[in-house]
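Q: What structure does this chain adopt?
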Amino acid sequence: MTIEMTRRGWLAASAGAIGAGLVAGAPARSAVHSAPEPFGFAMNTSTISGQKLTLEQEIELVAKVGYSGIEPWTREMEQHVKDGGSMVDLGKKARDLGVAIVDVIGFFEWAVDDEARRAKGLEQARHDMEMTRQLGGTRIAAPPFGATEQADLDLRKVAERYRALLEIGDGFGVTPLVEIWGFSKPISRLGEAAMVAIESGHPRAAILADIYHIHKGGSGFGGLHLLGPDAIPVIHMNDYPDRPRDQLSDADRVYPGDGVAPLSDIFKALQSIGFHGHLSLELFNREYWKQDALTVAKTGLEKMKAAVHAGLT
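A:
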């Protein structure tokens, strides 16, 4: 089956999403933040990766600034262990500081057609999920890594592979989230990620959305109101300049409110579906990497909060 056939069929398949909590109105499993803010605010460590802090320093930094969560990358976790640190101890420190591990960013080939590569990717997934569990995290990103150039990738088969990945995650208490990559050919749009999650038939299937990637891939933001709150527990928050989609790159991401994304519409859509997760600031801006990490983290949180408050008033 071609990807075009799969796209046409995904709406018909959405009836099965009710059990998986992927449609608006599905009951929420649990809130992940208790602050008076309408949403939780986290920081993806890519935002300050140019400053070369250790993961422990990043956790301390986000706690100092006032974020309620953090999204570390597996390479930082590996480095912490290599340097003699313990994931369990670091996770305890994060909890003591009031910082939730809202998601972990890793890369493993779970969606590819090649069975040998996929088997190796699932072994990497197990390793990364175990590290995530030790750190106290319950989610890990599952982008279409390794399959980004395959336009004819059958999304029904990808959905079966996603279910297999979710079942592995069940053993670790870690949920892999189908991540939208706007530059990828098979999963570049919100509807494609939704189809994979829906067709998996797994009760914990969910999506990792991203403002920049939704725009980059060609989707509008109106589809967000069709999803239930458990369908998108974490959203990568950023903005983008007024430039053609095909000319945008990760490095062009800017602070929320400094670009042209329809943030007010996005926040209102999230509020309407009862979104109770985290907005996680994910930037790769080289100019920000040249600045003091504390300044970038503070500015990012201030701009996220300002954008949310302006958008919901």
